[in-house]
Every structure is written in structure tokens, then in C-alpha cells.
Amino acid sequence: MSLEEYREFVLAKEHSLGEGGFDRLYQNPFEKDFQTHLIDMTVRKGRFSVFADCGLGKTLQQLVWAQNVHLKTGKPVLILAPLSVASQTVSEAEKFGLEAVRSKDGTIKAPIVTANYERLHYFNPDDFGGVACDESSILKNDKGATRNALTQFLARVPYRTMFTATPSPNDYTELGTTSEALGGLPFMDMLEAFFVSNDNSMHPDHMGEAWRFKPHAEPHFWKWVASWAIMIRKPSDLGFCNEGFDLPPLHEIRHTVDSEPRQGDMFVMPARNLPEVREERKATLRARCEAAAQLIQQHEAGVMWCQFNAEADLLTKLVPGAVNLSGADKDDVKEEKFEAFRNGQIKYLVTKPQIAAMGVNWQHCNAFTYFVDYSYEQKYQAVRRMWRYGQTRPVHCYNIGTTGLAGVTRNVTRKAEKAERMFDQMMAHMMDAQSRAAKGYQPLNPTFPAWM
Q: What pLDDT sits at residue 167?
């Protein structure tokens, strides 16, 4: 092998989707300047992901992307979304002057077709020129069979894009599954290329972090991500003005319910394990629900988030006019409740983060209650349904815990602080990588031995 051939071999180890798109054919009059920049990049790349914070107009961007792909290929474009978002996408398309329809059975009656992920099996990938996945982070928590089915579906479509809020800095799974769905480096190959198993994953400060970067791999990892994705928390991240994109105050109010000592204890002791946490939640069920009911009724409308059916049932009884949107509801019933809450026909909605915390825009209200739980990500998603760009009023978040759940409260607070630090680091790497990518992606220049 010659020296030049060896150099080409080393450079080929770089993982990039490159540019396989086209110059855009259509621009929408509702686009902001930073949205135009993002759409231009997404259309030009062909297969690309946009990680944009809540309220930055991802729906408009994916609709305009879809219209461009339709004009280029002459084929319809499919937008996949969670159940709570699919009908909302059609309403947004009408507002922006674009033709889109909702399909529940695989029929295609417009250039842009939207459907929830569970309906994917009704469609033939060969019918579409492109597919956009809205709230694509849903895939990392989904069953492997669903994720594999989507990846196989996308593999037969020339143009693909993913739109979701900024990924969790505590979990790189989303980045790997997104790359694989776009046709880039598969998830397991990503782990092999950039990560090693974290031996301290069971340490309290590293709980749930199964992987850590290989030595010196982190900057190379983010340069790789920047070749197929862009991340933005605010327009100024891309050099644009933030005017009109200011978040209102977020008031996090802690409400602590007094617990009774557990059997055998003289004093109230924080729950030390999951069985004790479950026991504490059961023992304080009514007190917590009564507190949530009293707090939410200080506002004209709001959401009462819960984790268990017993909490949902009791909250619905305690608050006049409250409606429970439950997992047992049929899809049509869920959609009716989503729409009724958005339109103000339902004042108070009771539901779980697993059901309704992905993608919906509830700027019409500005208050919610949340029972303390271990999941930082679910709490973050619940907050961002209301606390997002476009919200004009301060948002009131009532965190309801108990003296016996003090350890859970400390745990999720620590996770939030750590996530913010990690996110700042992640954004710094991405901003540096994106500034290089904006000039046109250039593969990394490997360091060769002196003798070469």
C-alpha cells in the first residue's frame, strides 16, 4: 500500500453523511431568519437532524422541508409524530398555507401526510420522496421492534430528517439511534468508535451513565455529530438576533407534605430504596393529591401530572371540571381530549408524562403540578410544554413532595444541575463543530507519524 493510499484509508475512517440534498425550491413567508438558515441546511444535506429547543418553530421547518422534497421528487412526504402532535401538525400546516392531511389507514390525499408512529405499518416507503420524524427522541425509549421497523422503513426513502428538542446530555442513545435512522453510523458502531463501558455506572454520581468517552474522543465525536445534525437553544447560537425569543420567568414552588414515621421508626426517615419510596407514595396519596388540587385551582387552567392511575383517579374527583387523559383511552378519545384542552373546553387536565409530555404546545395555560419523581427527563419535558418560546406569562411549577421523599427530591435536583453543566459542555463542543461545518464539512485531519 502506498503512502497516499494509506492516508485515504485513514481519512475514510471518518463518519459523515456528507451532502446528498439539493438547493431549496420553496420558501414560506412565515419563516424567521434563523429558521430559513436551518431549512436551507436541512434541504441541502438531504438526510439531517435538527435538535432545536421548544418553541423555535420545528413544525414550520419540517413542513417547509417536506414541501421542498415534494416539489423535488414529485412524491408525497410523510411526517411521523407522537399521537398528541399529529393533528396539531395539520392545523399548523393550514396556518402556514400548506396542504397537509392526517392519515390513519395509509391513504395519501395530499402532498404532505402526517401520522402517528403507531400507524407506520399502514404505509409503503416506496410511495414517499421523504420522511420527517417529529419528536424523534421518542424512539430511544421505544421498543426495539418499533425502532427497527422505522429504521428499515427510512432506508428505502431518499430524503430523511429528524426534528426534536435538544437531546438529554445524560444519554447518548438518542444520538446513536438518530444517526442510524438517517443512514449514518449505526448505534453500536458509534459506541465502539467513541465510547467505553463506564465501570462506575453504579456509583451514585454516575448512575445510569453506562458509557463514557474514550480518551481524546469527545471533540471528534461532536465533529461527527455536527456533520449530520445541528443543535440550537436560541437564535443567537447561529448568529441571529434573539428578539421575540425570550423565555418568561419560571417559578418553581416546592410544596412538602408531612409524612408519618414508617412502622418501626420513631421519626420520619427519608425513603432509602424503591420499596420504601412506593410505600411512602401510597401512604401520602390523598395528602399529595389534595395539595395538588388546591394549588392548581388558584389558576384558570392547568395540568396535573402524575405517575400512577390511583393518583389520576383521585385528582379527577377532587378538582371540578378535571378530565383524565389516560393510557387506557382509545386513540380517538385521546386526540379529542388533547384538542379540547388546547381549545379551553377542558380547564384542568390530569395525565402522565409518558402519555402527553412529548411535543404538545400548551402556551394557553401557565401552571401545573408535578409529583416528585426520579426521572429528570420526564420532568424537563413536562415543564417545556408551557415554559417555551412564545409563552407570554410567568409559568408556575408546583413540585409536590413529602418529608419521606426528601432523598428523591435531592436526587432529581442533583440530576438537573449535572445535566445543565453537561449540556453547556455539549453545546460548546457543538457550537465549535457547527462553526466549522458551516464552512462546509471537512473530514478530520488525522495526525500521522513523523516518518510519514
A: 67
